[in-house]
Amino acid sequence: xxxxxxxxTEVYERIRAAIGDRHLLPGQRLREVxxxxxxxxxxxxxxxVLARLAFDGLVDHQPNRGxxxxxxxxxxxxxxxxxxxxxxxxxxxxAAKRITPASARILRSHIDKERAAEAARDRQRMIxxxxxxxxxLARLSDNSVLSRYLTDLIARESLILQLYEKPDQSNCSHxxxxxxxxxxxxxxxxxxxxxxxxxxxxxAASLDLEPGNQPRPSLDEVFAKL
Amino acid sequence: xxxxxxxxTEVYERIRAAIGDRHLLPGQRLREVxxxxxxxxxxxxxxxVLARLAFDGLVDHQPNRGxxxxxxxxxxxxxxxxxxxxxxxxxxxxAAKRITPASARILRSHIDKERAAEAARDRQRMIxxxxxxxxxLARLSDNSVLSRYLTDLIARESLILQLYEKPDQSNCSHxxxxxxxxxxxxxxxxxxxxxxxxxxxxxAASLDLEPGNQPRPSLDEVFAKL
DNA sequence: TAAATTTGAATTGTTAACAATCCTGTGCCC
DNA sequence: GGGCACAGGATTGTTAACAATTCAAATTTA
Lengths: 226, 226
Fold this sequence. Notes:
The structure is a homodimer of 226-residue chains.
Chain A: H1 6-20, E1 29-30, H2 32-39, H3 43-56, E2 59-62, E3 66-69, H4 74-98, H5 101-119, H6 123-141, H7 144-164, H8 174-186, H9 189-205, H10 219-224
Helix pairs in contact in A: 1-3, 2-3, 4-6, 4-7, 4-8, 4-9, 5-6, 5-8, 6-7, 8-9
The first copy, chain A, binds a DNA duplex (30 and 30 nucleotides) through helix 3.
């Protein structure tokens, strides 16, 4: 794997998180010198990080025109959900082979956190926790390839939700997460497939595939909040 | 997507092909200045290409220790085949939705080429054609995410086959390819799943998961043949 | 002799200056 | 006013010199 140095990883993770947490919006321009100033690093570092983010599909990088946060198309969104369904299904099947009482407890306690975040109307936290649930499943599946693909898909899904999610969506998917955990323990592949399909279809159904215009805060504004 | 310049893409593709065609063997050291000399380019170019190959999982790149062709572990191989099964299944289902008489003809004519290569005992060409068949399916599926993942998996599979394939394997999988084409046209998902599973299991079954030692030709030797 | 140390070459990593490209606004001409 | 050419600044891309690290062989030491 392409190793980034500690400093590079730091910058990479912070920008990635800023995109995942919806602080950096699709289309936001990412100028090299500006990022240098913000992260107190050199252009070489920023360049490497931007190249990797571009490879991840989170950033659009065109020769001599610089980088900006990616704006996935409707087709990209459709392709992604098909792929996600297939990956999640495989992860769930592997996870079902490996689930233990201890790991089931971890998953359930995670779902409790999701419920708490919803009760607190903390939308930011709900989104983050929802992604983390799937990454927990991925870890449980113990498959490095599937895990990597899912990480990739979840990051890009964040951009897609921002661009295309219907405005009034509640996104309270933790009950579907609970269904998945039940199905994992049921040793019934059909039930598991159904739980996964219901969940992914639910996310896809919350999309309105007409792009909208969103305001874009300046880079300083975004990173000033740490 | 991270754009590489024309010159960079050229180098990238040539190294990738050299790995795919089994000219560059697992573990082969890839020194920057040596590659500069061979491809008549600068260190900057080589560095970018190596970084990307490392990200692809084709090259192992450690800080201050340089790059070498990756040596996937047995666990890597197992993870990869599980992922590949899931991706191929999804691609086949999408391809089945889109198949036309014209595309079926293209697939069949490809299988004819595979048969010809086997008749000619051209093992090199058989391996290349076998990979291309799956990439044709990916293109037919019209899903950019699944296609990308499959491309990724096929490249890495090439390394795994080199390291772990049983020595006497005939690898004449074109009959299984023909089965897949039949299933695509049958509009029977069960039959399609079975054809995919049989094929992927067949490849996995040709592996002997005990690593062997292989001789490694010098870089000059490899690229002198163009 | 075998382990530990030193030393210098080979290799990778970084930086800073330079080059090339693109964008923006201005003035000119029709 | 609208289109066009052009300059200047802003931004990205590249290169070459320098710095840091690793590796291997030679040397020393117990």
